[in-house]
Every structure is written in C-alpha cells, then in structure tokens.
Specification:
The protein is an alpha+beta fold and 168 residues long. It folds into 2 domains: 11-72; 84-167, Glutaredoxin (3-Layer(aba) Sandwich). Helices cover 45% and strands 11% of the residues. It has 7 helices and 4 strands. The chain has helices spanning 13-25, 33-44, 49-58, 63-72, 92-96, 99-110, 155-167; strands spanning 84-89, 123-128, 140-142, 145-147. A hairpin with a 2-residue loop joins strand 3 and strand 4 (145-147). It is elongated, with a radius of gyration of 19 Å. The two termini are 35 Å apart. It binds FE2/S2 (inorganic) cluster. Residues 89, 91-94, 130-134, 137, 139 line the site of FE2/S2 (inorganic) cluster (FES).
Length: 168
Amino acid sequence: MRIADLPKYELKPEENEKVDQIISKYKGKNGIVIPVLQEIQKSIGFVPIGVQKKIASKLNVPDKDVYGVATFYSFFSLIPRGKYNVRVCMGTACFVKGADKIVDKIQKELDIGPGQTTPDRKFSLQLNRCLGACGLAPIIVINDKVYQKIKPDEVMGIIYDHEKQSKG
Ligand code: FES
C-alpha cells in the first residue's frame, strides 16, 4: 500500500492533546525533527501524516523534512496498532496446516493486509514466524491469547468472540 493510500486514522482527543503538548515543548528550538517524532511515537504509538503536517507547520520545518525522517527510520510507524492485534503464525507447521488460508479469510473480512490496521483502529493483522507451539498448529494469537488448531472458516468467529469477551 502506498503511503497516500493509507486510511486516515483519527486521533483520540487525549492523543491530540499529547501531540500538542509535545510539539509546544519544541517551539523555537533547532534540530527538533527526530526528537519530536520520537516523543510522539513513544507517547501515542505512531506518527500519522496529519501529525507530521502539524509538526511541520507549528515548528516551521518543511513538510518534506518531517516526512523524510518519519519514513526513513523503521522505528517510526505511520500506522497505529489496532486494539486487537491478530498475529497469524506462518511457521512451517502452521503453514502446512493452512495458515495461508486463515490469513486470506482475515484479509477479505477486515479488508486489510499484513502489517495493516483497520481505519477504526480496532484490528491489526501481523504475520509471525514460528511462535513455538507447533504441536497446536495452526495457531493465531490475539493480543496475548493463543488460539490453537483453528480452521479458516472459524477464524473470524474467534476474532469477533474475542472482541466481545474483552468488552465484558
Ligand atoms: S509453526 Fe506455528 S507455532 Fe511453530
């Protein structure tokens, strides 16, 4: 996915507040692009394009300088982690038992690819190497909870049930 095609992730009010506080700390200082981005990444977990534009305009730095730094270093993420981070094991044991079909199901239903997050920031999809539980293949992990021996047709039910249970 091209950066221009990324969904517009809305910041929560408290995240907006944090971003504003951090930016105002750096007003009038030089060489601030990396530290301000680092602090925002640490505080809210990502540095979306909208935040980069805000940094550029409030701190009087060209847009392209902020963007260049944010996209150059791998520790800056332009995509937030979803509330439910779904990791699918793609290790050999899981793969031969249909992990790729599980990934297909999730991609189609949530309309996101690996490494992406839904626009409502609810679900992220990640592909993992062997998660060390091969006897239970194929497995997925949602946040810290492991689901084992799952079938592609069951995966979305498992994800939505997990969401319901987490809401209590
Ligand atoms: S291959 Fe999936 S847990 Fe080892």
